Amino acid sequence: FCFSPTRVGKAVNAVKGANIPVASVATGFPAGQTPLSTRLEEIRLAVADGAAEIDIVISRTQALLGDWKGLYDEVKKMKKACGQAHLKTILATGELPTYADVYKASMVCMMAGADFIKTSTGKEAVNAILPIGLVMTRAIRDFYERTNIKVGFKPAGGIRSAKDAVCWIVLMMEELGEEWTHPDLFRIGASSVLGDIERQLYHGTTGRYHGKDYHHEL
Amino acid sequence: AMLAGSSLLSTLEYGPAPESDAAANAWIKSHDGKFGLFINNEFVHPEGREYTDTVNPARGEALASIIEGHETEDVNAAVAAARKAYESWSQTSGHYRAKVLYAIARQIQKHRRLLSVVESLDNGKSIRETRDADTPLCVRHFYYHAGWAQLMDTELADFKSVGVIAQVIPWNFPLLMLTWKIAPALAMGNTIVLKPAPSTRLSAMLFAEIAMEAGVPPGVINILPGGNDLGFNLVNHTDVDKVAFTGSTGVGRLLRRSTAGTGKKISLELGGKSPFIVFDDADLDTAVEGVVNAIWFNQGQVCCAGSRLLVQENVLERFINKLKRRMNNLRVGEPLDKCIDMGAIVNESQLERIKYYVDLARKEGATVYQSPGELPESGLFFPPTLIYDIETSSKCVVDEIFGPVVVLMPFRSPKEAIALGNNTAYGLSSSIWTESLAKALDMAFQIKAGVVWINSHNLFDAAAGFGGYKESGFGRESGKEGLYEYLKPKWHARIRNSFTQEEKEAAWGDAVPTGPSLPGSSKCVDGAIDKTTKMFYGGRQARPDGDYSRVIVGPKGEKCGEVPEGNRKDVRNAVEAAAGAKGGWGKRAAFNRAQILYYVAENLDRRSEEFANRIHQMTGEGMESARNEVQASIERLFYWAAFSDKYGGEVKETTLYGATVSVHEAVGVIGIACPDENPLLAFVSLFAPAVVRGNTVVIVPSEKYPLVATDLYQIFETSDVPAGVINILTGSRDLLSKVLANHMEVNAMWYFGSAIGSYHIEHDSACNLKRTFVSYGQQRQWADLTEGAKFEFLYHSCQVKNIWIPAGV
After folding, report:
1. pTM above 0.80, yes or no
2. Mind listing the pLDDT tens digit for each residue in B299-339?
3. B176-187 tens-digit pLDDT
4. Among all residues of chain B, which has the CA nearest to that of A136?
């Protein structure tokens, strides 16, 4: 479960004992348009409140200007601020102009210590789409081939149906293998999929299509 | 019940995703599992015919039994039906035919899933491909050609239909190849007798039903299942006007020879061994995916398959590792499973052929890597296969295997990639993988192939021509260029020459040189200095290898001079010069070629009276008429100079986002034998289009009146014509033509001589499948632009290369 930084403390309390890690978005989510010092402080506060995972947004300006060294330095500082917490870097791919930029941003984040790379905040006009997923998973593969380090992948936003989710799992299977379909290396950011999974399970087990009034409102 | 249970969720293995064959089986059953000949819009079952089971190669089960047509009776009946239908079909309006083609397109769309399933069952190709590639392309093709039918009257006003077309198609894309053949033929007003491949006839039967439903009149499309004898007799039927064939180069060569000299049109879409060239700056992962499309699409049973993988050496190891990793994921199996990557091989003999080559590679010590996934226990399956550490001389590298087998070789520089890529008898397609557009285009221009894909492979569309260079055949399918295979200029008569075996075997192309005078000829007594005419090749005047001369006499028997008697060694030398010059000449800017041709015209004009005199003296034509011929020749030079930069090609409106560009490239070295009529004008009319479009020529002037052409070499020498571009050989037209037609370095042969000579030229040109342009013994009005210039000459001076350039960021 993923929360905004102000909600982390409450969330940690709520899931205490359930072995569910609490994740927090940080660094001026979703735009990332606050000073670096503020963004780093946000991470430290969330971690101090008990967040086990931090989702940061990369600076679009750096990506758009091709300042890859600058981006690397920033993400590295964020990684340091995370301490023991896992770092997920959100590329906001809908705002990166080319596939080559998506690949470079993926590589830079992984080099700077990202444990996961994530497509989107869910707030861009275009969120997780398969062609972008292809570029990012191949970047993960290249990084693994060169460093032996396994980085996880999280598509987020725009995934609405169980079928969409299956497509993403197939992508992981085909490009990275079965190992990359487990939660330590693969997550889906898709709050609306759950309802559809319920519908599909109903159809799968009964052979009847589900009705709206029989399904649980989330 | 539909979920297999929790184990599926933990292993994440792919489950079965079967496409139903119920509708296909019901359709077969509605015909009682038995299909006859399709003639005059009826399935007919003449008595005494045998029936053969058509078999699903994935399951080994018979699907239906299909008639074997009789090789004479049924061929005659089908051709007669097509001939009768031609009388009215060829007279229909373009709009009428457009409506029929449109209806076919719509009917295919309405029954697309049935067609997809039938095709998959019969051929063994995956439903994924028949559903997503084969049938959508068929629909697109009929739509596109419905458009050309509509536009024929206005956009192709100089052309008419050809007549009855015999079409012989292969088993790899049964329905799509049928479509590629039938759509343009119908659109242009021809009628058809089509022979489907023996292994795959079922979708043709379903198409026949669709065509009837769409309102194709009886006799316009006839489908004749049968064996090789039937095919051979169909192609050679005297009432067939054109032959269109897709298949092996070996059979294509046979068909070229058997139709030689008859005047039938012929187009051949033959084999390939196409290079897939990967540079170190390519997106290697995308290139790996490209290999999957290039060689494992349709189990590699694709004439334009990327079967030779050339990879830049500094990324070789990485590329091989990536490719192997990808191969590990490929799944081979039941073609009707919607998630299968590769289906079944079409029949036993094809599977044996594939196994033979892979075993051979192993014996030769090559490394063979195959997809490790399990194959079904029964059925005709073969795994995706990669071969490397192999010599370029291996049969596996040279021969078209026509299966899921790719050979991989390294290269170090673009130049080496081109050398390796072009080192094949074939020239069907190629793909170039690099992120540098400049490099990609440089390669695209230099690869000798009819289709070049940049960062892609096996893209097709009705708007872009498809067809080969070299031994991959000639003629194009799709695009405007494809229409010309089903059209002829309106002024053309229907030529139907035939020769007895005795006539064909009679000596031809032999010549005995003359002595200093001919019987009855008078001596040259004008008191002028004796003139020695030479041959002209490689930019210099050359004495004949044989040291013989031939006396040329005027109309009253007076001796006008001598020309060298050229022999086969002179041909060898001249072709060597022409081949050496063709690369540089073809690369020159069109403007530069135009300037040179204009300069030839200028210098001819300067000496026009001298040339008129020569014509008058040799032929006995009056001075006025001789002057007219010189003026017409100068004008013809201007005409072709004008065309130097106005026939470069066009942008094709395909479904690709990007640019699909057709480039009209030079054919290469063209051998030309000139007629005796209009000795200057015909000579100019023949060399000028060839040369201005970037070819180099070895040209034999009129045998009777050669001096007016040999006089021209002084003009060529003073007009900046580069060495080797125009090469002139004198002597016996037929002897020299015969050597040219048999020369493997000559790419096309134009022959304006006798009917039997035209037979020999077309027959012998099959050795390397050179294109031919022959007169069949007919004369043409060289002074008339319609007959002496225009489209025909451009068509024969060019070959179309379609370059696919995807766009994207």
Report:
1. yes
2. 999 999 999 999 999 999 999 999 999 999 999 999 999 99
3. 999 999 999 999
4. B285
Chains A and B form CB pairs within 8 A to the count of 23
In angstroms, the CA B603 to CA B590 distance is: 20
Closest residue of chain A to B321, computed from CA coordinates: A145
Chain B CB contacts of A173 under 8 Å are: 12, 329
Q: How far is CA B367 from CA B356, B358, B370, B391, B494, in A?
A: 15, 10, 10, 11, 56
Q: Are strands B748-751 and B669-673 parallel, antiparallel or unpaired?
A: parallel
Q: Do A205 and B2 touch (CB under 8 A)?
A: yes
ipTM score of complex = 0.93
Interface of A with B in 138-167 (CB under 8 A): 138, 141
Query: How far, in Å, CA of B216 to CA of B81, rounded?
Result: 13
| Lowest pLDDT segment from A107-121, B157-171, B544-558, B641-655 | B544-558
Alpha-helical runs (H) found in B643-693? 679-692
d(CA B313, CA B112): 45
Q: How confident is the model at residue B1 (pLDDT cuts 50, 70, 90)?
A: very low
pLDDT tens for each residue of A106-150? 999 999 999 999 999 888 888 899 999 999 999 999 999 999 999
Asked, for residue A212, whether it belongs to a domain, the answer is no
Quick check: is A87 in a domain? Answer: yes
> Is residue B740 a contact partner of residue B455, using CB atoms and an 8 Å limit?
no
Does A213 reside within a domain?
A: no
Domain count, chain A: 1
A107 found inside a domain: yes
A99: contact with B, CB 8 A cutoff: yes
CATH 3.40.605.10 given to domain B21-246: yes
Tens-place pLDDT, residues A67-102: 999 999 999 999 999 999 999 999 999 999 999 999
Contact check, Cβ <8 Å, A204/B329:
no
**Cα–Cα distances in angstroms (integers) from residue B169 to residues B133, B142, B268, B269, B295, in the given order:** 18, 18, 11, 10, 21
List the single residue in A99, A138, A169 with the smallest CB-CB distance to B809.
Answer: A99
Q: Which CATH number fits domain B275-466: 3.90.190.20, 3.40.309.10, 2.20.28.20, 3.30.870.10?
A: 3.40.309.10
Give yes or no for A178 touching B (CB within 8 A). yes
Cβ of B2 and A181 within 8 Å? no
Q: Please give the positions of A annotated as active site.
A: 118, 154
Q: Which of B71, B129, B269, B471 is catalytic?
A: B269
- When scoring A102, A126, A135, A138 by the number of chain B Cβ atoms within 10 A, the one with the most, hence best to mutate, is A138
What amino acid occupies position B554? G
Nearest CA of chain B to the CA of A93: how many Å? 13
**Does the fold of domain B537-658+666-806 match that of domain B21-246?**
yes
Domain range list for chain B:
21-246, 275-466, 537-658+666-806
Domain B537-658+666-806 sits in which CATH superfamily?
Aldehyde Dehydrogenase; Chain A, domain 1 (3.40.605.10)
Domain range enclosing A26: 2-193
Other Cβ atoms closer than 10 A to B11: 9
